[in-house]
Amino acid sequence: AQSVSQHNHHVILSEAASLELGCNYSYGGTVNLFWYVQYPGQHLQLLLKYFSGDPLVKGIKGFEAEFIKSKFSFNLRKPSVQWSDTAEYFCAVKGGATSGTYKYIFGTGTRLKVLA
Amino acid sequence: NAGVTQTPKFRVLKTGQSMTLLCAQDMNHEYMYWYRQDPGMGLRLIHYSVGEGTTAKGEVPDGYNVSRLKKQNFLLGLESAAPSQTSVYFCASSYPLAGVDYEQYFGPGTRLTVT
Question: Which of A44, A46, A60 has the most B C-beta neighbours within 10 Å, making it the best mutation to test the interface with B?
């Protein structure tokens, strides 16, 4: 069955620390991969996405993610976090455009708290 | 553009009552989705629609019905609310263009409490 695993449920960091959030997926075939962020009290917003090409994807607010096909992973990174990055982060996967699927599978989320 | 809007933002229901959540998008998106978000469980797909007049079941469809009579609107109905349906409900839409799927755009959510 298709699934997405986010191994870190809660992460606490101090400002300026580096961040890496893990995301592994189980899906046969080509995939589209996404990271969404949900700030407290707000709706989900797209951080970055991977469809094809360069496996290192850069998103908004200094975030980046690397698609490693052999490891079925799409980890999110940021070199230096800020207090304003406190939020919940969701990894999601969808079959590629030719897969015929319309469903997005979300991970359970990682709550990040950044201490000022 | 307002993007994706949801009404109401908050609602409290008694067990057995019914209600309809409205999702509207002004981006001419083909696909629309309803999710529920529960602590520690991420987002789970309830129902989705790939076009006007079509709907399909997602991961957790029981107790919910949907309709997509107009392209811009996607309604989620609870016929007989149960406490297990207490959750935050998010609507999303997306639009495939030239064989490439784009990301989903989410609404602000509806917080529903069933007592």
Answer: A44
